[in-house]
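seq as requested:
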Amino acid sequence: MPTMVALMTIWDWYTRGFGPLRQLAESLSPQRVQCLKRDLDAYHQHYAVPVGLHMKREYLLTIGRRR
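struct tokens:
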């Protein structure tokens, strides 16, 4: 389970680096921001491992050739 410091770091990282979440947080009242933060923390609890978080992500790799 991530520590409170790790959860604060996750929140800070997301609100600084993920534009849609940052924009949403900036548009909400302080009370709603706290609810959003609580929900985001609860979501990440599912991915907790002893060293932090482990989230598998699918991705699509596209390889092309310039003509």
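The longest helix spans residues 30-45.
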